[in-house]
Amino acid sequence: MHPGFWLAALYLATALAAGLSLDGPIATLIATIVFIGGGMPHGAYDIALLARTGRLGRHGLALAVGGYVGIAVAMAVMWVVSPLIALVLFVAVASVHFGEDWTMIDEPLLKVAAGTAIIAAPAIGHPAEVARLFVAMVGGPGGETVARSLIAVAPVALLVTIIGISDAWRNGAREWAAATAVAILSLIIAPPVAGFALFFVFLHSTASFGRCADHTGRGFAALVAGDGAALSVAAISGWVVFANSLGRSLPADLTAQAFQLLATVAVPHLAFSKWIERRLARGDRQHFPASGAGENLLGKVSAG
To answer: Would the pTM of this model clear 0.90, i.e. be above it?
Structure first.
């Protein structure tokens, strides 16, 4: 567990206890910058791991990166032509992706339920704010329907999460269990963007960078400053050009656009992480045929 999580959680708890406004325009903008600038770079490990396989070749790697970019472009276009479908797809992808963090759960549907809790928790604690955000993202009342749907499934999702946290605690993963419990509570209690920034940047993303560092042999800081920064700058720059070219087709709310950007890169991230995991698993079985240590570690790659 990266120590940055506990420092960020302490700051958030102190701010809430002191009665500081974390849902005003400035505080929301700061939280938005944090989750974009600090969370998006973890997707860069896709490219790093693709290069690490070494079996694609230069041409194959270029095709893979082209496919990655193509999926992202298609998702960006969907925010213009069918934003409600894009939002539903984003919620579904996020539920599956965050559910992959729960390596102690074997049943896929239960993993998805646990991942859904991350999205549903803010809708329980702050239904009006989440509804406004979703309405801004889709440009219509359909966003409010999605928010109400999350509230409806929240009890089951949170029950699965509680069971998963208890199971992790009993099996010795106590720091991870405690951090996940704190993140869930923060998502319910803190303003939605601030709570999401804590989870996404300081729990989910740092864990992904740690696993990538194990596979590539590069340090945590090197990944963040290298591949992570490069991908983030490219993605944000591409989105700015895309948004400016469309005029008023995208929401004026910068936080809503930030979540649209996050969704745009999340879909190819999920798709490619599965494929990369299989390629690395095949390669590492050749290097660790007896111990299985490579497979055990790789079983957690997709959590990022």
So the answer is: no
